[in-house]
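Issue 218. Parser rejects a valid record. Input:
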Amino acid sequence: MQLIYPKAPSNGVHTLRPALQAALQTQGLGRNHSFAAAAPGNIRLSEAYRGYSLSLEDLTHGKGLKDAEVGDWRYLVFADGVTIADAQLADVGGHVEFASLNHGPVAAATVDALKLAEQSPQLQGKTVELRVLFISALHVVAIWLHADSEDVLIPIEPTPKELAVTQLYSEAALLMLLKPAADQARKRFDADTSGLLGS
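Output the parser choked on:
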């Protein structure tokens, strides 16, 4: 399996570096001991890839990956070969700005999902673009390996285990698995008169 990436913003890494340096100087992300202990000279960034999102409405109306909304640029942050965080840049008025630095499970889970994909006979010899898909209403995050001929999705943390286990799914299989939860959530939203759901 060979990964390809979209054409990244030319100033993406330059934009991220000051935020990373500031976080390291202030021992930022203190709960993440690997990040807090990282030396600035040992920090490396992955190639940039894009986040995409599907809404609850998309799922309940039978929409799929072709309808996913493109989002932020994302980078995995490594120190001494270990994934310690992921960083986001947002497109704002035609240029990129630092959006966030996350130390949760997504970065390490992304690397684990890619290892799983590399071992899959289904993807041997294939070239795929790395993407990540968010379905926030269901707390679903999935690594999306996109090719012209097929799309492969691998749910990762913090996706609830009752919705999807970490394995390779086709687009149809994953969306079919998520549809009952999406329909149930939509009913809850529609029945809510407090106006608080989703806020």
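Fixed in the parser; the record now loads. The chain has a mean pLDDT of 88.
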